[in-house]
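Hey all, sorry for the wall of text incoming. These are the two entities for the joint prediction.
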Amino acid sequence: MKRSRSASSSSSARKPLAPIVLLALVLAAAGASAQDARVAEARREGKLVWHTSLALDSAQRLATRFEQTYGVKVEVHRSGSERILQRVMQEFSAGIKNADVVNTSDTGHYVLLKRKALLARYTPAGAERIPAGFRDPEGYAWGWRAFPLVVPYNTRLVAPADVPQTWKDLLDPKWKNRLVISHPGYAGSVVTQIIALEKLYGWDYWAQLARNRPMLVQSIHDPGRTVMSSERAAGVNGADYGLLYTERRTPGATLAAAYPRDGVPLIFSPTAIMSFAPHPSAARLFTDFIFTRETMQILADAEGLYVAHPDVTYPPDRLKLSELKMLVVDPEEIDKRTEEVKKRFVELFGA
Amino acid sequence: MRSTVVRSTFDRSVPVWIATAVTLVLLMILPLGWLGWVSVSSEQGATLANYVQVFGDPHLQKALWNTIVLAFWVGTASLAVGVPMAWLTGRTDLPGKRVIRALIMASFVTPPFLGAFAWVMLAGPNAGLLNKIYRGLTGSDDPLMNIFTMPGLIFVVALYSFPYVYIMIVNTLELIASDLEEAGAILGASRLRVALTITLPLAFPAILSGFILAVLQALALFGSPAILALPAGFHTITTQIWSFFQYPPKVEQAAAFSIPLLLATALLLQLQKRLLGRRGYAGVGGKTGARRPIPLGRWRWVALAGVFAVLACTIVLPYAVLAKAAFAKAWAQPLSWDNLTLANFTFTFFEYSATRDAVINTLELGIMTATVGAVMAALLAYVTNRRLVPGHQALGFLAVAPVVIPGVVLAVGLFIAYTRPPLVLYGTLAILFVAYLTKELPVGYAQADTTFKGVHPELEEAGRILGAGRLRVLREITAPLAKSGIIATWCFVFIGVIRELSASIILFTPATKVISVVIFDLKEEGQFAAISVLGLFMLAMTFGIVLLMQTALGRDFLGAKD
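and here's what came out:
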């Protein structure tokens, strides 16, 4: 940030060029040494504990990149968003302070954690350009990545004419025993989806869907895998990134995704630093790292994610978010309704 | 130093026994006391509200009922498989008995959750390999079997519970004198009639208690229902207790829901003890004469095929499918050259950062628990066998008492007891250590007890008469004699720790994951290949260490004997 400010001041002033250039150089050097000091501090802390709901392979690759860049080890704890909250809170209420950076796909979590004063305020470098949808107004949590929830299906098991066009298509009895659904007690994105469709069609939608007896899996990436193995023909939900994105671009793929016309839930995954983070410098360094254009470009190219950085370009085969009818649920509402959603889900689907 | 010990009337070993007793009380009383208290506590004070809430909820009632159904049928199925197999290998001229026994032992070592996971790949209704083969052969649209159902769950749990019945019966059959059976045969009864009217009634107490053991297994299991019942949309008690820990945690309800499981286990064990304690069976009690195996005639090969069909389901097929998934890019696709890969191994061991820590944690816990557990079990068994302290019977009882605590229930108790001062063990390996030690102590004790029963006290007495103190006798006479038994104890405890999931899943924290928990995490994520790699690695590691222990320490013993 310092560096960019000094750059703009040098371009605005024209006449006494030499001193300004000198000043810029000094500032840049100061910036560089400040950065060195941060890295040294992070190294002194030794490691970083990262809880993330990012798909396991993607999370692991990112952690390795960070380790190679800064020489600070990242302990990756990948799990479902709801499981992450459970583990972090269980640790915290036992007085254990282990978690540094938390990234889940349930925006309601950050409302809750903020209310409990468990988040540290930190503004990642370049945050001023992060679009409104990705921001927490108070600056505790920052939307890092986003993905649509779509309907994965197996092209060998679903004829083109049968591909679901709307969410309501999945209620047809022909889908009985042929669907797979990810669980809101594990995957945060499913909480958002359930609320979004409940607002469109009421709880009746989910009650009817339960009659088709979908197979219950935990992770939001598992419906894609289950469909790919041909265990089920289609998924009620699937994160449209990672496997689902990369697999369907490979030649001869049987895995495909349908974007329902009545709206696609858009899931934001914020990231935040815990107030009790035992490695705060490493946490800040890491947060800056994951918000760099470079990292975000990788997420967009390799994983098919939508990201906060405005300069990132997307692969030509990637739909623009503006082309989709998106369903977005307010974080406050998610926070308020999470328990209700989980309870109703278990009542309807049995587990 | 030693001479003072001999002269002193105060035996230096007494503090050791007291310390052991106190430890036992702490391992059991503290967690169970907290469990009971929390189950009746609320912010307003003591209450039964938690019980009312838990047992009034129709969804939870269903979980309770599912558990009863599961346990009953697992017990029955285990009998249906275990009894004939025990009779065939114990009484008849069935060929290949050694191989059969070895395979049954292998199914003992296999963690049930790994078996359940393998069966997802074998008998998932659509992608399951067996169902695919069946469809290919018959042209049918329906699967041969759907593993994600109650019968499917019963099937898989029974596959890994029947060895309990088997071992129980095989041991009893060896004690049943064959003269009664021969008398029956001489009087003209057919082989089947002899088996049904003479052998069966004699073995009846053992059969019933084998049934109870299998039921207990099914009641306490967490991994298999989590893998097979949850996708089908139903809970059992254990998975339900685990679900109570979702945020916001309902620990009081988890505690209240744990109590019936605890009571049921205690009751069943009491019943089993009574059955085995009855001595009204004159024919059981000692080996008499030589026993001629019953010739099976032309049924030999049919019986052998049946036995191997069962063992194929417990061992051969599951490990084959795990190996396939470990080396395949897509587990559900045929194993062709383009589907072969080593990438799963690279990912699991070099890219997935949780693996290394989990392997280290597991090894550390396995070795620590096995060592402490074997020493404790040996000391306790020694004390109770030699009646060294007043109330030694009580010590023996305490050592086996944890048997009644299912892993999940123990974990809930430990979680409550050790997440609060004065002892905050949660978040460290210590809480897992305590859980494993408590859980494995009964097994270790039983093994050590058998060992010391086989070491005659005369030898020790001779040593003491010659002036050695008790500890010196223990070190120089008893220990060398009991060594191989103690090593066996070590191995039993070690195997038990490595495959433990039901307590670990509640007690681990991100910093203290063990292999079984990582496998469960990967299951939730749907990473079949990595699970297969880790599962196979876990087995190789278990066998490797057990072999190492036996050769490193066992050979010495055998050499000394020569």
